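*** Query protein ***
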Amino acid sequence: MTAHVTGTIKNRIGFITLDRPKALNALSLDMIRALTTLLNDWQQDDDVLAVAIRASTERAFCAGGDIRFFYQVGTAGPAGGSALLEDFFTEEYALNHLIHHYSKPYIAFMDGIVMGGGMGVSQGGPHTRLRIVTDKTAMAMPEVHIGLFPDVGGSYFLSRSPGKVGDWLALTGQTVSAADALYADLADVALPASALPELYSALETQPFASGAEVIALIHASAAPYAAGFKPEDSMLAANREAIDRHFAHHKVPAIIASLESDGGEFASKTLAALRRGSPLLLCVTLEQLRRGADMTVAECLRMERTMVRHSFEGQEVLEGIRARVIEKDNAPQWSPATLDEVTDEQIGQFFSPVWPDHAHPLRAL
């Protein structure tokens, strides 16, 4: 399909391989378009029973969107690429919606790094998805650290994690393990990465009469390893009471104050992670998840499309990318610089309509 996405049908399964290893399979616009074309074609092909997406490298499934591209076009001015940014997010979010509502089993092998946009192409609808993690999985939604918010449907799937676990993941941007992903309802089954080649071989050779049989094989293959990936033994489970207590507050300063009164090691580490994020986007993200909890997938994606337009109209995300990725000085000059300076008006601006409903880029979802 492209230099970085390949699609093949083997044994009545459509296999998609992300193959951009030097960029940790970060999604480009061309990759998004290739994925959309393959999924649309295979959804109409009766000979395809299921779709599986995986990576060519063990290091990463997908580290997110191509944020270097965001910076390049975002700093070029209106004539230098703003239309490309518009296309990127419109088409990426439409792809996320397609995956969530895919009519056939959609199997994501989330081996290695899974962040941002990688979550968007993994978190399908509950009736057809199978999200597989391994002992090498490193999962995160770290957008607040670059002055953005957890998009690609994060409003939907993070707000539906148990208790306030999704809030913790979104506001801290911390990386979690396979057991944590299972506990947070961001994965379905787990197995060692070393077992993947044998599973791939079985998928490519064992006869199947239905997509349900494909899913059953994977569950059977993962079952012997379940004891090694117990959700109840995860870090998130161990700290669930503290997460729910501190993140129950409706304002970020109140969350910070609650954590500061704790004194424990987990609270201290959580505070350090929160302080890496943009004060403004921390507040915007919390509001985003509160709203997303009562929205459909389509409504969440339309909201996020509005939010991302506002994000790139400002400078916060470009400053975050500069500091974390381009110049790597890790000293972003956030504006406002502190939580005390963030106003309700500034937060609300991210949710103010950009287009009338009939002209929204994702109105067809």
